Amino acid sequence: MIRALPIIAALGIGMLAPARAEQLIVSVSNHRVTVTPNYAGEELVLFGAVEKDDKTPPGRNNYNLVVTVNGPRTDLTTRRKERRFGIWINTDSRQFLQVPSYLAVFSNRPMDAIAPADVQRRQQLGINNILLTQRVGTDYADVVATDPFRSAFVRLRKEHGLYREETSAVTFLTPTLFRTSIPLPAEVPIGTYDVEIKLFADGALISKAETAFDIVKVGFEQFVANAARNHGFIYGLLTAAMALMSGWAASIVFRRD
Amino acid sequence: MQLYLPIADIPINVLLILAMGAAVGFVSGMFGIGGGFLMTPLLIFVGIAPAVSVASVASHIAASSFSGALSYWRRRAIDPALATVLLTGGVVGTALGVWTFTLLRNLGQLDLTISLSYVILLTAVGGLMFWEGLRALLRMRRGDPVSLRRSGSHSWVHGLPLKMRFKRSKIYLSVIPVIAVGLLIGFIGAVMGIGGSFILIPILIYWLRIPTSTVIGTSMVLTLVTMVIATLLHAVTNHLVDAVLALILMVGGVTGAQFGARAGQKIRGEHLRLLLGLLILAVGVRFAVELVVRPADLYMIRETGGVAP
Lengths: 257, 309
Fold this sequence. Notes:
The complex is a heterodimer of chains A (about 260) and B (about 300).
Chain A: H1 4-10, E1 22-28, E2 32-35, E3 42-52, E4 63-70, E5 73-84, E6 87-100, E7 103-107, H2 111-114, H3 117-122, E8 134-136, E9 139-141, H4 148-159, E10 163-166, E11 171-172, E12 177-184, E13 191-201, E14 204-217, H5 219-230, H6 232-253
Parallel strand pairs in A: 2-14, 7-10
Antiparallel strand pairs in A: 1-3, 3-12, 4-7, 4-13, 5-6, 6-8, 8-9, 11-12, 13-14
Helix pairs in contact in A: 5-6
Chain B: E1 2-4, E2 11-13, H1 14-31, H2 36-45, H3 50-74, H4 80-107, H5 110-142, E3 163-166, E4 171-174, H6 175-192, H7 197-207, H8 212-237, H9 243-265, H10 269-292, E5 299-303
Antiparallel strand pairs in B: 1-2, 3-4
Helix pairs in contact in B: 1-2, 1-9, 2-3, 3-8, 3-9, 4-6, 4-8, 5-10, 6-8, 7-8
């Protein structure tokens, strides 16, 4: 497990691209989101600044930003229902391999206004350009964005707030200071979330930075989930004992004969 | 009041689940059934994954049937010998059921199987029960004598070997059909997340001709043991039992059941059977409509495991 990596990144500030003229300094408002009994989703804030140095062309202020948040990766299967023998049953299916369970893309303007199509594809800007590997029979490949399974997959994830793309979510407070919020619905999976921030000017990538945050179960939730997974038998016995206890208690409390 | 469920991994409204538990408990107390066939669809309806619903409802049914079994035991309305023989089949059936459940989940046809078995079982049992209740009611209207037990009429079941005397039920019967019935109920109970007493009770009364006085209590013992085993097996093999969800359901369920039982005693047996038949039929028809009508969304996403290594 490479758990140490995101933690180092999470320690605060991600700095990258030393040979470039601009540097990005970013941070999220909370690096460790805890799931408590009354957890019902959360909203994080990512803020940062573009730092210029002497190599920066003077008067360059037309910056564009694309922020991509990737949740923990998992295999997801999309199934299609068809009518067979008068009833609707699952017939065809595609497996999406190691795709992000949560995926959010935020930018300050539409992708087409930020970079030309080939740059968008190379830099995986926007959900349509992000690689979602499918297993088609024995082949592994991503398909065009209009593929029925891919578009249904993205649409369903969007309906649950697990995939989102907003092209006006990043706001520049000053020409170099920016912020965006990362909404996390209650259903978001537990795990490490990588945040990638790419800075563009004149249609070209000029700098990028990475940071991360974790969503973790703590206390009782973590205890129950761990017990269920690691000590299934004892967990089952305790649940059964709990059932018997409450049944017995009810028969005592409401005893009439 | 929101609460995050640790296994189902979604927040739910505690009061809503509590109310659902109480409502189903009321119905189960009134008719002397476990109520799993109502609870599981309701949980799926509020957004809990079908697999988690089935696994968690098992422990909920165990709780309500234990509470019921205790009061029947005090009234000496349980036949221990009959319960033991039923359980022999029930335990094997439950294990087979949980195994099938895991298999179907891997094949991706679990949801369809659950829906289809609900449709077939519920419409058949509900329809029969409704029809029978209606006939009994009409007979009573006309003033004909009610003769549920046609004594002396022996079917082929009573010709089977390995006969055994069940003292408290005052019946002399082969163990083969009893074990077979236990096996069947254990199997469908584990696959569908139901206790199965709504199927078991009619079988015991009409097919095996066991007296009504011991049927309900004895079937509760079978339900109790098969559901405890189902809880254990689901916890070990699929890790899908949500103890927090189960606890909320139990508290609502056992309370509702007590009030339901009191309400049930005020209603005549024929009316009760008619109502139960109608209820079961309605749930079955609802599942049938869902299968036949074009779904709002033809696509569906399911997690197929494999978190990044």
